[in-house]
Each structure stands twice: as C-alpha cells, then as structure tokens.
Write a structure and sequence with these properties.
The protein is an alpha/beta fold and 198 residues long. 56% of the residues lie in helices and 11% in strands. The chain has a single domain, classed as Glucose-6-phosphate isomerase like protein, domain 1 (Rossmann fold, 3-Layer(aba) Sandwich), CATH 3.40.50.10490. The chain has seven helices and five strands; from the N terminus they run H-E-H-E-H-H-E-H-E-H-E-H. It has a five-stranded parallel beta sheet, sandwiched between helices. Strand 1, helix 2 and strand 2 form a beta-alpha-beta unit. Helix 1 (3-41) packs parallel to helix 7 (170-193). The protein starts with a helix and ends in a 5-residue tail after the last helix.
Length: 198
Amino acid sequence: MDLLARIDRHFNASAEAKRRTLEAMGPRIARAAEHVAARLRQGHKILVCGNGGSAADAQHFAAELVNRFEIERPGLAAIALTTDSSALTSIANDDAFEQVFARQVRALGRPGDVLLALSTSGNSPNVLAAMEAARTAGMSTVALTGRDGGQMARQMAGEDIEIRAVATATARVQETHILIIHCLCDGVDWLLFGKEQA
C-alpha cells in the first residue's frame, strides 16, 4: 500500500465513523444542544474537561462559546478545566491527578451548570471523578465518549446525556468528537440567537 492509499483509507474511515454516529446519536446531539442552550439562557455556565487530545477539544469548545463560533454574538459562559497549570499541578501534587478536574468542579460548579466531559475510552479516572463531583454539585453532564462508552456510560443519571462516537480507533473518535463539538456550538448559537451561519 502506498502513502496516498493510506491517506485515502483514513479519510474513508473518518467519514464512515461520522455517518454512523449521526445515525445513532443525531437526536442526542440535538438534545444536548438544547440542554446546553437552555442552561446558558438561565444564566448558568459550562465547565469542560478531558485529557490529551480531549483536553485540546475541551479548550476548543470553551473558546468557541466564550468568543464566537461562526456568528457575531455575545460571549457565552464556559470554562475549560484543562488550562490553569497552577491549579492542575497543585491539585495533582497535593491530592492526586484523579482529582484535577473534580476539585475545580467543586470550587466553580453551581447547581444548574453543565459539565461537558470528554473521553475517547469513557474510562478516564479524573473525568469520572469530575462527573461524580458535578452530580454532587447539582450539575448535569454531557459526556462525549467512544468505543462502548466505558464507565462514563454507566455513570449517566437524571438529565445527563451521553453522545458516543461510533468508532473504536482513538483517532476516529477524536475526529468525530470535534464534529459533535461544532454541531453543539452551531446548535447553541441557532437556539439562542436564531441566526443562520454564513
């Protein structure tokens, strides 16, 4: 197999994962956008967390809300829990790495806020701990997972919504998560501001 054939295989696999995720999860993506928009409309905020590539996706989502996605509109309240190196390292040093997000959720989260939790496996211990902290704080969780959903899928309760990328390869899950994030951003903008994207 030559290099161009490998690239072609990646594109086809990515497109297939996204198509299958739309078929399985489209209504959940819409419900999550409605849920996030409703909470923002009520004056609540979105806290976002994940590890590695999912940490970058968490920051990506928060930036799209705070700044803008594709339309000019007021900033929306979102905080990526992955960006404060002093908080992250002090919590990891003084307590445990498993608590780096949960402690921030307990400090910053309020009843009615939403945690957007990302994990390609659904088994990240620090993300699971953040979800438990969110539940205790009276928050709901929108979980972006992959594969079989992992422990995160089994931790869903109440108003929580799991959106599972229909893929097993980490790269395919991450690519699908980015598309889901963009769908959420677009949906929130449309629901709150009613403007068509350019």
